Amino acid sequence: MKTTFGEYIRLLRNENGLTLTQLAAKLNLDSANLSKIENEKRDFDEKRLPRLAEIFNLDLTDVRNEYVTDQIGKQIYETNCTKQLLQVAEEKAEYRRTLKEKVI
Length: 104
Prior knowledge:
It is built from 6 helices and no strands. The chain is mainly α and 104 residues long. The chain starts with a helix and ends with a helix.
């Protein structure tokens, strides 16, 4: 999905007819903090992902994937990564996968 994680939350909230205040209460946040999250001025706490998935009756893996891809995208944007650097990073990720397989 081509949205930031904050936009993703806003989209879910609007599709489900919840106000900012209602969703904030369900997430044990105040509405000002949720507004900052939706507007990309504050990061969403990863520990709240299971609750977010539960509120919207979504698969936690899908919600976590949205969160992680947004975090990776944000890091790529902020560090102005080149395609070459991303290729090396993917190679390192693949190497880590092989290490994990060796342990198992």
